[in-house]
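May I ask you to comment on the folded chain given beneath this request?
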Amino acid sequence: RGDGKQDESKFHGKPVFDREEECVYTVRWPTHLACEKELKCSITDKKSGEVFDLSPLSKFNDNWKAASKTSDGSFLINVCRPLTPLSSNKCDFSASSCWLNGGSYTSLGHINGGSLKQTTDGTVLLSYSGGAGSKESCPAGRTTNISFHCGKESPGPVLTSADGGCDYHFQWMTPLVCTKAQLKDEEQSSAVDAKKCTVSDAVSGDSFDLSRLYDGDRSHTVKGGTRTYYLNPCGEGIKDRDGCSNADVCSMAAGVAGAPAVADMTSRSISYQYRTNTLNLTYTGGKCSGDRKWATTILFVCSKSASYGEPMLLAEDDCRLLFHWPTKFACGSAASECFLKASGQNTIDLTPLARHRGSWHVRASDGDRFWLNLCAPVHEHVDGCPVD
């Protein structure tokens, strides 16, 4: 029984006897050939300086399929890694792109010798080389070139040409290579209905409906420092508290009768951030102190395990309220599962490291402080940091 442990040595290594247990002999063979191959999947945009990360397009349980109107058969493609081995996939195990034609499977390149670069016109180009070939046909081996362009959807790769049957060119529209300015332009064209609490996002093609969180006669109770808050957004107001029939959020101070509104339905606005996969409900209104009014934000983040979820108070200061609400109704196509399938049957799951209250704190040796979270926004009010 072999136990192939990873070793980045340029040599193939040699077997070493490890142990014998009940007539089972274990031999350990450190070799670079046991290392799963991957390609760096991010690149810095030359003009904006922003980082384009294509890793969300890497598949671990399936492969992308591309049909063609100009070539026979179909194509399997993965991004920055080899094709996922499946019982129906008989391609070369190291191939990242493969042509299926009848009963034949032809490698169109792999990540060894592959590259991710940006052309002079700003196109992000992913290339695979070293595919199948012979002296008579494609002596340099077949290649795959995928051009990524900014687009509001990610329908997958589309074959545009196959030069001489050796060099295959695909085009892929995706928001992952859009700059923030481009995304902002797309977001402005999104269909938003604050009254109904719905968003149809032009970048991802996702639709969200937060009105499903409305719970009729039951509001959600959240304890603050000296106040108690009642939330029941995106419906007909809070019905289980006096004076809150037109509010999404009400507040009751300790020892004070009544629960005046701090977030009136008429002041509601809604927005969606594609890259962070967060929905924001914001309100202004409701008397705070003197002539000042409350400013309230409810930050909805994707949590498929939370179902409807429960709100939590993140910040309560200077007439400003920030609530965090994990829920499945905030999940779009860009939602991070926070796990990946590694080699063999192993699965790496980082979900337990995602914090739903607060964040992880790190202090550097020079005294600088950092707040971070995994697979979710930083759920903490930090001066200078955006809420998402």
User: Anything to note?
Assistant: Residues 4-10 have pLDDT under 50 and may be disordered.
